[in-house]
Design goal:
There is one protein chain. The protein has 399 residues and is of the alpha/beta class. It has 2 domains: 239 residues, Rossmann fold, CATH 3.40.50; 94 residues, formyl-coa transferase, domain 3. 38% of the residues lie in helices and 14% in strands. Strands 3-2-1-4-5-6 form a 6-stranded parallel sheet, with helices on both faces. Helix 1 crosses helix 7 and helix 6 crosses helix 8. The protein starts with 8 loop residues before the first strand and ends with a helix. The relative contact order is 0.14.
C-alpha cells in the first residue's frame, strides 16, 4: 500500500516558511511535491540565517524534506511554457508570493485554471487577496500583531510580546493543508478544482478564538495573563532546581480532585484541611500562598522529576522544555518527532518530524532537495525531455 497522498502531484512555488511548511506536510503524507526554484538562486531560506557557508541553511532544510527539486526560470518564455505543461499534469499548485506577483508572472489562479480545470490552486497571503489590507506585505511578527496574539501574550504590565512559536507562518501552513485536502476531496464529487486561500492574519485570528470569546464575556479587550490559564489556581510555572531560564514546571490543577492528587504526591497532606487551600475559591484568594506551597516542593527537584511525579499522580503538568530538552527528549524520539535527516553538503542533522501519524502509511523521512537536484529526472519523467533537450535548456538559462 502506498501513502495516503501517493499519486498526487503538487507544484510548489513557495518560499520562506508559511508555504513550505504546508507543502512539506503534503510531501510527508506521500504527495509528489516538486519544489520549483529560480536557477542559481532558489528559495531565500536556503541562505537566510546560515550557520555554515558551505551548505544550505537549517531553516531551509527544516521546511523542505521529502520534496523533489526543479530549477526553472519562469521569466523566460520557454520556462513559462514548461511550467504550463507541468500544470496540466498537476493536482495542486501552491504559491505564497507577495500581493499581485503571481498574476504579473503569468501564474495566477485564473490563468492556471484555464490550463487545468481540475487544479487545486492554493495561496497563502499575509492579508488575503481581497479586503482593505490585501495589498499589505506580511511576515510572522506582523501576522501575530495584526491577528491579536501579541496583545494577549506576556505580562499585563509589560509591552505586547511575540510568541516564540511560528503560529503566523507554520500555523497558516497547517490551515492551508486542511483546505487543500478538502478541495481534493470535493473534486472527487465535482471533477473541478478550486482556489484555496489562507491569510496569515486569518489563521492567527482563528487560533485566538478563546480570547475573542473572553472579550465578549468581560466586555472589553482581553489583557495578557502571563502564565495563568483561566481561573484555576494553581495554573502556572513553578521554579525547579538548576536556576536556568527554562528550569520550571507548569502545573494546571484545574479542579479539586487534581489539587488533592497533587498535594498527596507532594506529601503535603496536612494542608488538605487548611482553609486557605480547601476550595478553588479559597485558593484564588491566596495565590501567593499556593505558589509558596508548591515551589517549596518543586524547588527541591529538577523539572523532569517534578513533572514525572505529578503527572504520574494524574496532575496535568509538564516541564518547560527548552530546545535542547526537545532534541534529547526520549518521548519525542520514540514518536519520531525529533528525527535524524541527511543532506549531501551538511551530513546528518536533527529536525522535527511529521506530527500527523497515520497507522497505514507512516512517514519515511527523505532528504530535502539540493537546488535543482531532480530537474532532469522530472522533465524526463513528466514531460518526456531527452538529454539533448535538457542540455539546450541549461545553455539557454531556462533550467
Amino acid at each position: 500500500m502506498g501513502q495516503a497522498l501517493t499519486g498526487t502531484r503538487v507544484l510548489d512555488l513557495t518560499h520562506f516558511q508559511a508555504g513550505p511548511s504546508c507543502t512539506q506536510i503534503l510531501a510527508w503524507l506521500g504527495a509528489d511535491v516538486i519544489k520549483i526554484e529560480q536557477p542559481g538562486k532558489g528559495d531565500a531560506n536556503r541562505y537566510n540565517n546560515k550557520d555554515r557557508e558551505d551548505t544550505d541553511s537549517l531553516n531551509f532544510l527544516a521546511m523542505n524534506s521529502n520534496k523533489r527539486g526543479l530549477t526553472l526560470n519562469l521569466k523566460t518564455g520557454q520556462g513559462l511554457e514548461i511550467f504550463q505543461a507541468l500544470v496540466k499534469t498537476a493536482d495542486v499548485l501552491m504559491e505564497n508570493f507577495g500581493p499581485g506577483t503571481a498574476e504579473r508572472m503569468g501564474v495566477g489562479y485564473e490563468a492556471m485554471r484555464e490550463l487545468n480545470p481540475r487544479l487545486v490552486y492554493a495561496s497563502v497571503k499575509g492579508f488575503g487577496t481581497y479586503g482593505p489590507n490585501s495589498d499589505y506585505k506580511c511576515f510572522e511578527p506582523i501576522a501575530q500583531a495584526t491577528g491579536g496574539a501579541m496583545s494577549v501574550t506576556g505580562f499585563p504590565e509589560a509591552e505586547p510580546l511575540l510568541n516564540g512559536a511560528a503560529i503566523g507562518d507554520s500555523g497558516t501552513g497547517m490551515h492551508c493543508v486542511a483546505g487543500i485536502l478538502a478541495a481534493l476531496l470535493q473534486r472527487q464529487a465535482t471533477g473541478k478544482g478550486q482556489r484555496v486561500e489562507v491569510s496569515m492574519q486569518d489563521a492567527v485570528v482563528n487560533l485566538l478564538r478563546p480570547r475573542i470569546r473572553e472579550h465578549q464575556q468581560i466586555g472589553g479587550p482581553v489583557p495578557a495573563s502571563a502564565n495563568q490559564t483561566g481561573t484555576a489556581v494553581p495554573s502556572g510555572i513553578f521554579k525547579t532546581t538548576g536556576g536556568g531560564r527554562a528550569d520550571y514546571v507548569f502545573v494546571h490543577a484545574a479542579n479539586q480532585q487534581m489539587w488533592e492528587a497533587m498535594i498527596r504526591a507532594m506529601g503535603k497532606e496536612e494542608t488538605l484541611d487548611d482553609p486557605m487551600f480547601a476550595s478553588p475559591e479559597a485558593r484564588r484568594k491566596h495565590v501567593k500562598e499556593v505558589t509558596a506551597l508548591i515551589e517549596g516542593w518543586t524547588s527541591q527537584r529538577d523539572k523532569q522529576d517534578a513533572a514525572r511525579i505529578l503527572a504520574g499522580a494524574g496532575v496535568p503538568c509538564g516541564p518547560v522544555n527548552d530546545t535542547g530538552d526537545l532534541l534529547a527528549d526520549p518521548h519525542l524520539r520514540e514518536r519520531e518527532m525529533i528525527v535524524e535527516s541527511h543532506y549531501p553538503t551538511r551530513g546528518a542533522f536533527l529536525t522535527a518530524g511529521c506530527p500527523i501519524k497515520l497507522s497505514d502509511s507512516p512517514v519515511v523521512m527523505k532528504s530535502p532537495p539540493t537546488l535543482g537536484q531532480h530537474t532532469d529526472e522530472i522533465l524526463e519523467e513528466v514531460l518526456g525531455y531527452d538529454p539533448d533537450q535538457l542540455g539546450q535548456l541549461r545553455e539557454e538559462g531556462v533550467v
